[in-house]
Write a structure and sequence with these properties.
Blueprint (H helix, E strand, L loop, with lengths): L3 H14 L16 H7 L4 E6 L2 E2 L3 E2 L6 H11 L3 E5 L9 H10 L4 E4 L5 H10 L3 E5 H5 L6 H10 L3 E6 L2 H8 L5 E5 L11 H7 L8 E5 L5 H9 L4 E4 L1 H5 L3 H9 L3
Parallel strand pairs: 1-4, 1-10, 4-5, 5-6, 6-7, 7-8, 8-9, 9-10
Antiparallel strand pairs: 2-3
Helix pairs in contact: 3-4, 3-12
């Protein structure tokens, strides 16, 4: 699949045009700060992801009760959840996010391909604690200036996670006022995964005190240990957990890696 990033951006604009993000209610966010939760956690800090499909794998899990899955992840030791709200290719929905928000008090990340402020407004109304921005989306001008989006999210009382895939993207994201820095081990243009992406970016990199999250391709406790040694503070894990027949057990084994 080529030009994946462009397709993802197009899908977001399509969802916006179809008023997917027009939320007419307001839910309360968590009273926990994800950054503080990560800093005080003696074990591996997992943010587990509720998603039923992906561009790389297609259907991952039959769509079922999202809140039941979310509760099982929290029972396994996840300190926060990432919930897909993008309907195309990810089979996500703001409705799923709302269902989980009503049942789960842990911090929640609204995971989407943000190209417009209406999605940030939706995150606020859904009770999200964190919103994701992808550095390459802004670098390739699928959206406006990233600093403007960060400022807008902060005005909405949302923390911002900026995701990068290359050293340059990471350094650029570190120049912003983002609250959390993410490294996606998956190349969104090709969908290829390499855990060494985190190593390459963080090796010999002086951290500035912000939390760094390693994302994608994490399947085993050994993966957690590998990523932690290069400076990852937390780990976003999606597909391997959603594919598992024992979600709670797998989450627990990953959390116990540290």
């Amino acid at each position: 699949m080529k030009n994946v990033l462009e397709k993802l951006a197009e899908n977001s604009r399509r969802a916006i045009d179809e008023e997917v993000y027009n939320i007419e209610y307001r839910l309360e966010k968590s009273d926990k700060n994800i950054i503080n939760e990560i800093k005080k956690n003696p074990h591996a800090s997992l943010i587990t992801e509720v998603k039923f499909s992906s561009p790389s794998l297609g259907d991952i899990r039959q769509v079922s009760n999202p809140s039941t899955i979310a509760k099982t992840m929290i029972e396994g030791g996840a300190i926060g959840l990432s919930i897909l709200t993008q309907p195309y290719l990810f089979n996500g929905s703001p409705k799923y996010f709302a269902e989980i928000r009503k049942q789960i008090k842990a911090p929640l990340l609204m995971k989407d391909i943000v190209v417009d402020k209406v999605q940030i407004e939706a995150a606020e109304k859904l009770g999200a604690d964190v919103v994701l921005l992808i550095q390459s989306i802004f670098d390739k001008k699928y959206a406006k200036e990233i600093d403007e989006f960060i400022e807008y999210a902060h005005k909405k009382n949302l923390l911002v996670l900026i995701e990068s895939h290359t050293k340059k993207e990471f350094l650029d994201s570190a120049k912003t006022q983002a609250d959390i820095l993410g490294i996606n081990n998956r190349n969104l243009d090709t969908l290829e995964i390499d855990l060494k992406t985190t190593e390459t970016i963080l090796k010999d990199q002086k951290k500035d005190g912000r939390i760094v999250i390693s994302e994608s391709g994490i399947e085993t406790p050994q993966d957690i240990i590998f990523l932690r040694q290069y400076g990852a503070d937390a780990f976003l894990v999606g597909s391997s957990i959603m594919k598992s027949k024992d979600i709670k057990g797998l989450v627990s084994s990953l959390v116990s890696a540290i």
